Amino acid sequence: MKKWLFIGILLPLLGCSHGSPAEKVLRTQQSKNDPIMMESPETIQEMAVPNPIQKQDKQQQRKTNALLNVPLIKQNPELKYGCEVTSLAMMLKYAGAETDKMKLYTEIQKDLDPLKRSASGDILSWGNPAEGFVGDMTGKRAGYAVFDKPMVDLIDRYLPGRAVNLTGKDFEHVLDHVSSGYPVVVWTTGDYRLPDRWESWTHGNEVIKTPLDLHAVVLVGFNETTVYLNDPLSGRKQVPVNKKNFIETWKVMQSRAVSYR
Questions:
Q1: Which CATH number fits domain 3-29+64-260: 1.10.300.10, 3.40.50.720, 3.40.50.2000, 3.90.70.10?
Q2: Residues 64-81 pLDDT 10s
């Protein structure tokens, strides 16, 4: 009996390159549905980079808002499918590491299993983003995604012993990490909404089920109703997004999140 592995990934010609989420969402604001994105971020006192030596007070009252001044880096034009490493570059730059998106592109673990399609164009087999980036990140060929474990390995290379994998944690735990002064790379969709189309293929003896649209961004702040994101695809800094709706999408993406301490 095959072992089923449900994984959210981005697909060729979609995923990280699936249009500007800012443009897509703003067009929906006149609809009856509540908008995902807000008009503009509230004025929140920005936080300084934390001293890693300082111990966090576990009894400290949870903060209700935070906003980190994380530098914005755009993935295009060099990395059409490079939302993960570009988001990672933003986070590492904020932490003081000397690197950039192109260096991370060469260093991230890759799954080199080739893409195989049926005569009708359906994906039959491909790599596993849990093991490394799948496909071609530059967009010269079909590109895909990479998930949390290879990202954590790369964080540890630049910040030895400080990588934190928050995947599977409650979102409040992720927000606590941000309120302590650490940005977090999180997985969502291109417009931050729930995915409505899925694909599946085999990888060895596993079946990988994936949404057509998956994206990675940097969580840089929050308040009671809103999260703030640095988006490498739209090229927008501190994008305000409805917190409740964002959390729903994040959970469907298997609650993936990575950071450092």
A1: 3.90.70.10
A2: 999 999 999 999 999 999
